[in-house]
Amino acid sequence: MSHDVQKKYLWHNIKVTATAYNSIKAQTNAHPQITAFGDSLKPGVKVVAVTQDLYEKGLKYNTPVKINGLQGVFYVKDRMASRWKNKIDIYMGVDVKAAKNWGKRHITITYGVPLE
């Protein structure tokens, strides 16, 4: 992450349950390439979906997220079903094997809240 991006945010750590998903109909809905916010998904983009409670804690649309064990910065571009709590879902394109290998983990993520 560039130093300029680092300076634009106040960074927070939070423990979450992290799973992974793919843009295939069997895992989402009839439009698996469109997020809940209306963004288009394509393999290679770094996107996470968040639960409503995390959204309310500051993981809003376009929030940058660093995930231990994965390279780069992901951005909140999708929402999860209301039945889940304190959970993120990491977008892994159409690589179902990678998503299954990730499985379900309890991890600490770091997310940025814009400085005003």
Automatic annotation (TrEMBL):
Protein's name in the database: 3D domain-containing protein
Lineage: Bacteria, Pseudomonadati, Bacteroidota, Flavobacteriia, Flavobacteriales
